[in-house]
Design a protein that fits this description.
single chain, alpha/beta, Rossmann fold, ten-stranded mixed beta sheet, 24 strands, elongated
């Protein structure tokens, strides 16, 4: 792809003192209303695929590369329990409208609709498409037959005005046309308002964890490019913005907005296309802050092709649509399409080539940059948006330090943010901070299905575990008497000053299942503040388990709560064939097991991984260490299997700081793995006296103290 559009990134000029000043700036922008936490806590920008392409694989033999998308859903009938649900007019209640031939359905006009019957019918549609009352996701009502403002029912929608006038005139034959029109408008708008509001209220009460809104709302009708491009500015007409203000009742009841930014061929690869999108998103962001409470998230609907064509968007227009929306603070981008995308082998193959090429690369570019800006500038407690909305700056990765490559058919970003890139983010972007309840949901492709524990109900249990562990560790064990942690000479050079105590003892414990082949059950413990908001963890500790254990072992041992209390995120999985994770025949090779760990970490947003691996799990961790050690901030093998399969030179090439743990009574795997692993140049050794193979079970106090000591030394 051309760097011209993907990497419009310049190095800002700033002195050291000004950089220090920026680092002391207030995190949240005072000019921007706070927003709710995103559906995926580490995903400031949600990417969703909502095109009806499900037939490409079974009928066309083409499996689309949709790895970049957090949600993959189809709008077609028969698909339920999706994280993005479209409610067409026949799917939710009794929506009044006129068919093309003029036949009235459910009264035709909102004035003639029965709200009582509509209420009675709505639960049926909700139960069919969103079966779990507590399910979390996006719920989009797609009612396009009429608009709630009288003046906007033009062209084919004029039937709603004419029928409204006929109804009033029939009741009042002596009224003047002007009087009839005025009353008809009042009756229509009041009824339309009531119908839409009551629908939203009932939907939210029955499915409270969905983000509810109407497709194409808000709109700003900036289509005057049709009259010529010469004087086109893209701005929303003032009269349309004023009309949008009349719909504040709707904006305040919605919990999400779903405007469209579809590009017509006439705007292809022009600055006019960028202005068209920019002003539509700006208007949505303006209205998202109407009223009290948090700003509503804006999810823009776009297409991978131009309207009414199969021509893919150019690289310029990827920036004009996706890049523009993300830079302005959109919470997500939803890709729409029609049946033509899967109509033939050629159409599926063409689309897949685009997904693997320009589209996939750009999505990875902009989503990664948005995550990095969120992490570095907003401390993962907000999303970045432009300080100056009309500036041409974008959340793009710097080509100086980053590259996007294809590996095994999958795209991957390499490189880490540099000081210049961070300075660029801080110069041009501000933080829209998150507030309110942190909710994490499931997605068919990348993320998880979480059932959060009622933390208030279990608070005494969790805090009891924490207090017991803390007392044992810090009062009874000022030093490890029955174990010793000795660093190698190279490891001593890596020691960092231990971080200050983490300012919270609150813990959030969740369980979830990661979809895939095989699906993976896991447990998660997070540090949270007093309001229950997630705190940016120091490191992310991924805990595997031995043959006789599962992820529950780490919860029952108190390891997960202890890690979270000390500021670390703990992620413990049930390996395939253990606990709640089903077995899989596809994990017979080292590479497949390495790929499974990579999928687990990537799907859960693990970027500062410390991998803890006892015994049998060495079948996964040791090959991962050999192949993907650059992805690890630390490694904690506990008498793992598989250490004899590698040469001294292979061990010596690995730079990952490692804590080698084993029990003094374990003369088999413990002694064997210790002999092989001490060839790692940056290693520490924790030998637990009087402990057997599962030494962390025999000596949990000493093990926990050694674990915390090691983590504190990692830079």
């Amino acid at each position: 792809m051309s760097r011209l559009h993907l990497h419009e990134w310049t190095k800002p000029v700033s002195s050291a003192s000004s950089e220090q000043t920026k680092q002391r700036e207030v995190l949240c922008s005072a000019d921007t209303k706070q927003a709710r936490w995103p559906l995926y806590s580490k995903k400031p920008v949600l990417l969703a695929w909502n095109a009806p392409t499900q037939e490409c694989a079974p009928r066309r033999g083409v499996t689309l590369s949709l790895e970049q998308f957090d949600i993959v859903a189809t709008p077609n009938e028969g698909f339920v329990r999706q994280n993005l649900t479209i409610f067409y007019k026949e799917r939710l209640g009794l929506y009044p409208h006129y068919e093309r031939g003029g036949n009235a359905v459910y009264g035709g006009l909102p004035q003639l609709a029965s709200l009582t019957q509509h209420y009675e019918k709505m639960p049926e549609g909700l139960q069919k498409y969103i079966r779990e009352p507590d399910a979390k996701g996006l719920a989009v009502i797609d009612w396009e037959e009429w608009r709630p403002l009288w003046i906007r029912n033009w062209d084919t929608k004029d039937i709603y005005r004419s029928k409204s006038r006929e109804m009033v005139a029939k009741k009042n034959p002596k009224w003047t046309p002007e009087h009839v029109g005025k009353v008809a408008q009042q009756e229509f708008e009041l009824s339309a308002r009531k119908f839409m509001l009551e629908t939203l209220k009932l939907a939210k009460s029955l499915r409270p964890n969905q983000l509810w809104g109407f497709y194409l709302f808000p709109d700003c009708y900036n289509h005057d490019y049709r009259s010529g491009l010469k004087n086109y500015t893209g701005r929303c007409p003032r009269v349309e913005m004023e009309r949008n203000d009349q719909l504040n009742w709707l904006w305040m009841e919605c919990t999400a907005f779903f405007p469209s930014i579809y590009i017509v061929p006439a705007l292809s690869s022009t600055n006019y296309g960028r202005l068209f999108v920019r002003n539509r998103v700006k208007e949505a962001m303006r209205l998202a802050s109407v009223g009290d409470g948090l700003a509503r998230p804006v999810f823009v609907y776009t297409r991978p092709t131009y309207i009414n064509q199969m021509t893919p968007l150019t690289e310029t227009d990827l920036v004009s649509t996706i890049g523009e929306s993300v830079a302005l603070g959109a919470a997500g981008v939803i890709f729409w399409g029609d049946a033509s995308y899967a109509s033939s082998n050629t159409s599926c193959s063409t689309l897949n080539k685009y997904l693997q090429g320009p589209l996939g690369r750009y999505l990875l570019n902009v989503s990664t940059a948005a995550e990095q800006c969120s992490q570095l500038v907003c401390k993962s407690h907000g999303r970045c948006l432009r300080k100056t909305p009309d500036s041409d700056v974008y959340l793009h990765l710097s080509p100086v330090v980053h590259s996007i490559t294809g590996q095994g058919g999958k795209l991957k970003v390499t490189g880490v943010p540099g000081k210049a890139e961070l300075a660029f983010f801080r110069t041009h972007f501000q933080c829209q901070c998150y507030s309110g309840e942190l909710i994490i949901v499931s997605a068919p492709v990348l993320i998880v299905q979480l059932d959060q524990m009622n933390f208030l109900r279990n608070r005494l249990v969790v805090l009891g575990l924490v207090l017991v562990a803390t007392v044992l560790l810090y009062l009874l064990l000022p030093s490890i008497r029955q174990g010793s942690m000795e660093p190698s000479l190279e490891a001593q050079k890596l020691m960092a000053t231990p971080p200050p105590p983490f300012p919270t003892i609150n813990v959030s414990i969740r369980t979830g299942q990661l979809p895939g082949d095989p699906p993976l059950f896991f447990r998660e413990a997070l540090p949270v503040d007093g309001a229950g908001r997630q705190i940016l963890p120091r490191l992310q500790v991924v805990l595997l388990h031995g043959q006789a254990f599962t992820s529950k072992t780490w919860e029952e041992l108190g390891t997960m709560a202890l890690l979270a209390t000390n500021g670390y995120q703990a992620l413990a999985m049930d390996l395939p064939g253990y606990g709640k994770s089903p077995d899989s025949e596809a994990l017979k090779t080292d590479q497949n097991r390495v790929d499974l760990l990579s999928r687990f970490m990537e799907s859960l947003g693990v970027r500062t991984a410390v991998l803890l691996s006892p015994s049998m799990s060495g079948h996964y961790s040791i090959p991962f260490l050999m192949k993907n050690n650059a992805e690890l901030h630390g490694f904690i093998p506990i008498a793992p299997v598989g250490t004899r399969s590698y040469t001294p030179q292979q061990y010596q090439n690995i730079q990952t700081p490692t804590l080698i743990v084993y029990g003094a009574l374990d003369t088999n795997l413990g002694a064997q793995s210790h002999k092989n692993l001490i060839q790692l140049p940056h290693h520490f050794v924790l030998k637990l006296e009087g402990a057997r193979h599962a030494c962390y079970m025999d000596k949990p106090r000493e093990f926990h103290q050694g674990l915390l000591d090691f983590l504190s030394k990692l830079k």
